[in-house]
Amino acid sequence: MTPDNNLAENAIRPFVVGRKNWMFAGTPKGARASADLYSLIETAKANGLEPYRYLRYLFEKLPFAMSTEEYQALLPMRLGPEDVALKNIASGV
């Protein structure tokens, strides 16, 4: 078996593709918003969450978060796939 860096290359590939798109973000604030969202999605993936389900869960719960602890509880590393299941979102749990 030969050593390779395929895992590292695969992990950064979406960033390299996205880099060209970020050139056209329009404003520094738009670029920052894109980077923040991208970071959130990649962190969700790294923590075993399906990004679409995580974002639906986040956007459903975020308006009700009032404290730092409640915001932190919504971070991808604090949740599991069972937390962001679509059934939980639909039932309001």
UniProtKB/TrEMBL annotation:
Span of domain Transposase IS66 C-terminal: 39-76
Top-level division of the source organism's lineage: Bacteria
Cross-referenced Pfam families: DDE_Tnp_IS66, DDE_Tnp_IS66_C
Residue intervals of the Transposase IS66 central domain: 2-32
PANTHER family noted in UniProt: BLL1576 PROTEIN
Name listed for the protein in its UniProt record: Transposase IS66 family protein
